Amino acid sequence: MTTTAHALVSSDDVNGTDVYGRDGTHIGAIDHLMIDKQSGKVAYAVMGFGGFLGIGEEHHPIPWNKLTYEPAQGGFVTDLTEAQVQGAPARQDGWYADRDWERRTHEHYGVPMYWI
Amino acid sequence: MTTTAHALVSSDDVNGTDVYGRDGTHIGAIDHLMIDKQSGKVAYAVMGFGGFLGIGEEHHPIPWNKLTYEPAQGGFVTDLTEAQVQGAPARQDGWYADRDWERRTHEHYGVPMYWI
């Protein structure tokens, strides 16, 4: 068997994958992913932030392109800041089908839009 | 709100998404997805086939590129045949990290490899 370094994960197991800051600080964990069914690309990681935001467990959708998977750490690394998360466009019901919100959110985080 | 036709689905909710043949026959359902953590692309849909294979519920990993999401049907459409599924390379433990198996499987189904 040619075992490779690439990491496939089951959609059942993404919950709880850890997310770290560039300095190695644990800042949260993935709660679930939002997947674009047509392209098969992950669009958002909905993350739970514990102490990071200092306001109890909060869930925020973070554009996938903001996260980098680091096999050595077994988790994702991001340069996300608390100010970025708190200043992100507010989401309402149906945010995941609201292209205007999606565009503003990707611009806010400074990452390429997943649908382009 | 600018609602769009694109469909995002939560990784928690992919279980049970239906898969139809080109002629509209229901051939199975998604059990879970296997996601490449580094690229954020879905690599496989692990599908459950009921009557389609006539041998009880069997789970088989199908390359994502073999499935097309059809919003109008609320499910995936594929030209997968029973012979293709039965003739696919056998999988062993660790198949999702066995690049040789992955290559043979994509060649068998005649679809582009997700990592290229």
From TrEMBL, chains A, B:
Signal peptide: none annotated. It comes from the Bacteria. This is PRC-barrel domain-containing protein. InterPro entries: PRC-brl_dom, PRC_barrel-like_sf. It comes from Seohaeicola nanhaiensis. Residues 11-83 form the PRC-barrel domain. Pfam families: PRC.
